[in-house]
Amino acid sequence: MYKIYFNDIEKFMNKRITGGPIVESNYISSVMKNKRLELSMTLSQTTDNICSEAFLSKLERNMMDKKNERVALLCERLDLDYNRLLEIEEGNRISQLLLHYINDNRKEIEKLKEGVTCELFIAQDYIIRGYNYYFREEYKQLHQIIIELDQVKQCLCDMELFAVLILIVEYDIKTLQYNKAHSYLHFAERLLIKDELYQLIIIEKKFIIAAHTESVLLEGCYATLKTMYSLGYPLSKQFLMNVYYLQAATRNDNLEALQIMKNDIIPQTYYDDYVYAIFYVFVKKEKYDEAINFIQGHNNFDYRTITLLAYCIFKTLIGQSTNEELRTQKGKLVGYLRKAEQKPTDTFHLAFIRLMQYEIDQVEMDVICNYIKNYLLKEMEDFYYPLYNHYIEERYCELLGKLSRYKDAYLFLSSKRKNLKKLPF
Asked: Least CB-packed of 112, 205, 333, 361 within 10 Å?
């Protein structure tokens, strides 16, 4: 899995907010800074006999007028055509990008990329490319884009910075890093952009994080999101948010409500999410046999689904399986794993599947205990998925007790209490 982040984000955002809003686009600033970094030139080397380092520093942070003789001389030193830079009419495409993003209109985002050029470093072009890489699941390229944007983050205007922060939030949600997603969403919210589109994106992400973490904030976030539907929030997204809500809610009728939704027109883009939600609710209600029968009627398996299936198989086999049943279910699980395409975002799912295979094979208690301690608990520092995290924690304490490792159990529970206080959800 690729680690996608901005360096020193908290320090950067505190300084950024203190300096006040930056509303103008950053075209020349970001091109100049990126070119200087590309040439490995220091501020001193670039400004020698032209201007002060403070002038260039402010220029690179988009805080100076670009129509200035000193800017022209700096461009000459960096081998950039100053007059051509002034002539280029960049336009603001970030609002278009985010409008297509909230509507999940990936084809239109792809069209925006058609105007992207690699000839010069244009932050908006790089942001648009980043969104395209994310939707195409080209995470290596996305990782590189964020690294390059990180180098010039001081140049970004508020709208551009917001778009990058939301892209990181999106990736963190995809990789189950909800604590990190919540932090970056908080930074995006601190920009205080007074625009309904931006507020809608913030509220949507807050709800999605609450739903996936099954947070106590779920009901409030969902109610707030629904008040924004009148702003033109797409019907297909409303369907998806309702699916997320019913998957996470503790209502008695959530399974029935999900099944009734099949009478509606299910957006093809979100069909797998709909099927998975029903599967997940079956499991939460501990209807494991029904869950297996339901999901095996669908042929589209990804690692998210296979992980939940492995959990179901273990729960149905525990204490009541014959050798023949065990071989049959293990064979099915291995078959699904062979067919599924492994992605860089599947790190946590793969780790939990391995635990389930240990459990199904009934390997020694100390092997399972050490695997949880030395691998899964470290994974859980980044990842959070309520069903699996709860199982791992309870199973670890149970094994420590059976192995008479009471001191380890006490230390684990103490650290768990401290970590729970830090969680934003």
From this structure: 361
Residue 373: CB atoms within 10 A of its CB come to 16
Q: Is the pTM of this model over 0.90?
A: no
- How far apart are alpha carbons 53 and 263 in whole angstroms? 65
Residue whose structure tokens are 């994310």: 134
Bigger pLDDT: 231 or 170?
A: 170
Residue whose tokens read 């369907």: 239
**CB neighbours (10 Å) of residue 349?**
24
112 pLDDT band, cuts 50/70/90, is confident
DSSP state of 65: -
Q: What is the mean pLDDT of residues 61-77?
A: 85
What are the Cα distances from residue 300, in Å, to 116, 222, 288?
Answer: 34, 29, 19
Half-sphere exposure of 258 (CA within 13 A, CB side): 24
Q: How crowded is residue 421: how many other Cβ atoms within 10 Å of its Cβ?
A: 6
Amino acid residing at 15: K
Please identify which residue in the block is written with the tokens 């009734």: 260
Contact 176, 383 (CB under 8 A): yes
d(CA 316, CA 140): 38
Residues 98, 104, 108, 114, CA torsion sign: positive
pLDDT in tens, 166-193: 999 999 999 999 999 999 999 999 998 8
Identify the CA nearest to 131 among candidates 155, 152, 107: 107
**Tokens matching residue 309:** 């299936």
Residue 126 in tokens? 């790089």
Neighbouring C-alpha atoms within 13 Å toward the C-beta of 160: 28
Q: In this structure, which long-range contacts are made by residues 327-334, counting pairs with CB atoms below 8 Å and at least 24 apart in sequence? A: 329/360, 330/360, 332/296, 333/306, 333/309, 333/357, 333/360
What's the rounded Cα separation, in Å, for the pair 72 and 81? 8
